[in-house]
Structure formats: structure tokens, C-alpha cells
Design brief:
Layout: H1 2-5, E1 9-13, H2 21-31, E2 36-41, H3 46-55, E3 59-62, H4 69-77
Parallel strand pairs: 1-2, 2-3
Helix pairs in contact: 2-3
Length: about 90
Amino acid sequence: MAFQLIAQVILMDVRLPGLNGIEATRRIKRDLPAIHIIGVSSFDDTVTREAMEAAGSSAFTAKIFVHTLPHIISRVTGKDVAQRTPCVRSRHG
């Protein structure tokens, strides 16, 4: 989808079926380096954070901090989205 949509920001779950989010991030950044990828994981550990950073992610957050995404997106893009974009929590995590 990244290659079809050419989004400015991608929220990338680290654990994906098949190709994991770390490898997906690496491939997207190789071909589309201007896209900001924000890694999201249920686990907030150093190994996962560093792997996403090495793959080229612009930021990383644990799912329990998903409410901070508007601020993270503002920081990585330089655009103020925090006041315009309400963050709705999903009941599914």
C-alpha cells in the first residue's frame, strides 16, 4: 500500500503476519525515503525500538501511548496536527 498511496506518514505495527514491520519499514524507506514511518508495538523494549530506528523509522511508540500520536506526527512532519486531529482510542488495542 505504501507504494500505491505515497502517504506522508505511515503507522507501522512491528508485528505483522508474514513480513514484519521492521523489514517492511526497511523496504519502504529504501524506495521512498521521504515517508515518515512511526513504529507502533505492544512491547516498549529497547531491542524493538532500536530495530525500528535502524530500519529507518522516524519515531516509535508503544500502543499504550497511542494517544500521543498526534504530537509525534507533528514532531516528525513539522506540521501542527495535534490540535486538528482528535485521537480516538480503539477498543481493540
